[in-house]
Structure formats: C-alpha cells, structure tokens
C-alpha cells in the first residue's frame, strides 16, 4: 500500500507538477499576450494622445490663423467703409460744386443779359437798345408823365447828350420839345422839334411835331411862319390827325 501510494503519489505529484507546469506555461503565454496587448494599447493610446495633441496644436494654430484672417477682413471692411464714406463725400462735394457752378452761370447769364441789347418797339419803329438806354429813357418819361416838366426837360436833355446814337433819339427829341414848350422855353422847343424832323421825317410822331412847331411859332408871335408850317403839314402828311387839326386852325390864323 505504501509503495503503491508512493508510486501513485509520485505519479500524482508528477502529474500535478506537469499540470502545474502546463498551467504556468499557459499563464506565462497569457501574460505575454496581455503584455503585448497592453503595450499595443499603450502605444495606440500614446499615438492617440499625440494625435490629439497635434490636432489640438493644429486647432490652436488654425484658430490663430482664423483670428488673424478675421482681423484682416475687419480692417479691409473698415477701409472699404472709409473709402465708401470718402467717395460719398466726394460725390456730395462734386454735386455741390456743380450746383454752385450752375448758380454762378445763371447769375452770369442774368448779368450779361443786363448788358445785352434788347429789341425796342416804340412809336411804330423797332431798334436795338442797351439796357442802360432803356432804363434812362423810361426814367425820364416817368418824370414827364408825372407832369414835372422842368425835371423832365433836364432828364431828357441829359439822355440825348448821353446817347447820341440811340434809337430812342427821335422820340426823346419829340418829348423834350414838349417839355420845353410846357416850361415856355419856346426857342429850345422849336430847335428840338426841328431836330426831330430832320433826323426822322417819317417817324410816327413827325406830323405831331410839325403841329407843335406851329404852336411854338404862334407863341413867338410869328403867325406867318405858323401858317406856313400848317400848310406844309397838310401837304406832307395829308391823312394824319395832325393834318386835320391844321386844316381846322388855318382859317383862324389871320
């Protein structure tokens, strides 16, 4: 029994040893695989960490680049807005300058028109006259129409002296003769009416001027000359109202 035990025990022990050896070897193999797996995991983890770190670094760099780009975009937008503002201001300035230029041109045209000759229609005649001529003639006639014949005589006399070539001259002489007659300056009146007739015998007021001359001659007690003037009036302007007046007066002049 004891020997058998020993044999069996030895065998069991050997079996156990063999079993233990196999188990140890299996465990050893399993530990190596685990170690390799762990090493592999560690390597993958480290690689992942490195990749994440690199990615994080790249992201930070990318963010910096994006921030810089955004800053550049903001600067460009600011410059663009500034440029637009300057352009709008320039446009406004140009518009204002154009407006001022138009106003200046309009004002210049108006001032030039004040010096440009105008077509005047007076006593059946048309002629060109400077604005100054028209102004002074109208002013003198306004005085005459008010009945201030002494002032009108002075004003009309100045007019004919100031504008010796004016188209107003025949009419101005006619009214000057009337103003002189009104203040009883008969000799001056006679001279002025004759000047008017010599200058423009076909003037619309020529018949009236001849009739006025006869009146002056009557005032000067020259009846003979007055009759001659009336007869000449009838011959020269037979269809005029002044000629009819002359016909009525002739029988009264003895």
Looking at this protein, list some descriptive labels.
2 strands; 254 residues; two-stranded antiparallel sheet; 8 helices; Serine Threonine Protein Phosphatase 5, Tetratricopeptide repeat
Plain-language structure description:
The chain has two domains: 1-115; 118-252, Tetratricopeptide repeat domain (Serine Threonine Protein Phosphatase 5, Tetratricopeptide repeat, Alpha Horseshoe). Residues 1-29 have low confidence and may be disordered. Helices cover 82% and strands 4% of the residues. The N and C termini lie far apart (214 Å). Strands 1-2 form a two-stranded antiparallel ribbon. By secondary structure, it is mainly α.
The outline comes out as: rod-shaped
How much helical structure, as a percent, in the residues? over 70%
Going across the biggest sheet, name each strand in turn: 1-2
Instruction: Identify low-pLDDT runs.
Output: 1-29
């Amino acid at each position: 029994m004891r020997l058998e035990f020993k044999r069996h025990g030895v065998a069991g022990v050997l079996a156990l040893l063999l079993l233990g050896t196999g188990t140890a070897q299996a465990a050893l193999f399993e530990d190596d695989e685990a170690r390799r797996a762990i090493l592999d995991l560690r390597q993958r983890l480290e690689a992942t960490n490195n990749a994440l770190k690199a990615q994080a670094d790249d992201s930070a760099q990318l963010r910096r680049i994006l921030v810089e780009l955004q800053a550049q975009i903001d600067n460009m937008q600011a410059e663009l807005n500034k440029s637009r503002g300057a352009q709008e201001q320039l446009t406004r300035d140009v518009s204002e300058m154009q407006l001022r230029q138009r106003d200046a041109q309009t004002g210049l045209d108006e001032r030039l028109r004040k010096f440009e000759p105008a077509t005047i229609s007076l006593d059946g005649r048309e002629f060109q006259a400077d604005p100054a001529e028209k102004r002074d003639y109208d002013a003198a006639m306004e005085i005459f129409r008010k009945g201030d014949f002494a002032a009108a005589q002075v004003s009309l006399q100045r007019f004919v002296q100031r504008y010796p070539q004016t188209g107003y001259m025949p009419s101005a002489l006619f009214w000057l003769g009337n103003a002189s007659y009104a203040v009883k300056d008969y000799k001056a009146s006679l001279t002025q009416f004759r000047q008017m007739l010599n200058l423009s015998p076909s003037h619309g007021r020529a018949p009236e001027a001849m009739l006025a001359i006869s009146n002056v001659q009557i005032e000067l007690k020259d009846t003979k000359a007055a009759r001659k003037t009336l007869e000449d009036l009838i011959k020269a302007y037979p269809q005029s109202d002044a000629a009819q007046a002359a016909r009525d007066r002739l029988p009264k002049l003895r």
